Amino acid sequence: xxxxxxxxxxxxxxxxxxxxxxxxxxxxxxxxxxxxxxxxxxxxxxxxxxxxxxxxxxxxxxxxxxxxxxxxxxxxxxxxxxxxxxxxxxxxxxxxxxxxxxxxxxxxxxxxxxxxxxxxxxxxxxxxxxxxxxxxxxxxxxxxxxxxxxxxxxxxxxxxxxxxxxxxxxxxxxxxxxxxxxxxxxxxxxxxxxxxxxxxxxxxxxxxxxxxxxxxxxxxxxxxxxxxxxxxxxxxxxxxxxxxxxxxxxxxxxxxxxxxxxxxxxxxxxxxxxxxxxxxxxxxxxxxxxxxxxxxxxxxxxxxxxxxxxxxxx
Length: 314
Fold this sequence. Notes:
This protein is an alpha+beta fold. The protein is built from ten helices and ten strands. The chain has helices spanning about 1-5, 20-35, 60-70, 85-100, 100-115, 140-155, 200-210, 225-235, 290-295, 305-314, and strands at about 115, 125, 165, 200, 215-220, 245-250, 255-265, 275-280, 285-290, 300-305. The strands form three sheets. Strands 5-10-6-7-8-9 form a six-stranded antiparallel β-sheet, with helices on both faces. Strands 1-2 form a two-stranded antiparallel ribbon. Strands 3-4 form a two-stranded antiparallel sheet. β6 and β7 form a beta hairpin. α4 (about 85-100) crosses α5, α4 (about 85-100) runs parallel beside α7 (about 200-210) and α8 (about 225-235) packs antiparallel against α10.
């Protein structure tokens, strides 16, 4: 808490003008009410192991602790083992990184009310179908947000013509996604599959735009002129927040792909000014890669409207 306070995170506001600090105080009030035996409802799936906590506040205390960890280190947010939720995990991490007020409000409402409204007025609904806060290695907040986000994307942006799915789960030999070859025609971002949790390019773009205002245009990279200007467009977009991209398949599972978010693009000290991309990979955490190598793998990007339109036309 002190670390977040020093960096001004606790004073960030949600869409209703309520600060992180005030939302956490309300969560503390609910924890105390549970401790007194009052009926503060918590979905069964989000209680601690063994089903404890309905009358002692333990599940809400666990929720608060996880929220604080997410805000302090959004780079640790993961999609889970063997899942196809890299798109929702990327959106969750971007929300925690750029809108901490909204993150706290939405996480609390999902746990207490079973649903919440995004800043873009979309409704996230808790998926109660057999979720467990240790399933697939996901945390409580990851288990709340990611299935809800996947369901929202499928509901609001029906797949229609399938341009590919973001849900990659394949590693290259360095345990970085995209360690092998790829084809520029790759459009199925689902680790070679098309599971319900994997999102199409349009669904991924819509989800990011709903969570992070300003990421409004989805662009498939189809021409060399677009690829040559990717570096410049992503660098400009980083001024307003992380940039969601889709990386091409690593060549070991057919036309699969993976959703990540770029968080920095800068010259590395001591390497003759070589540009490097830092990106949050929901499988591997925070990764650095030479910019030239990274942008060669990008097949899809979501940018603020004017930048996206410019890239689309280039």
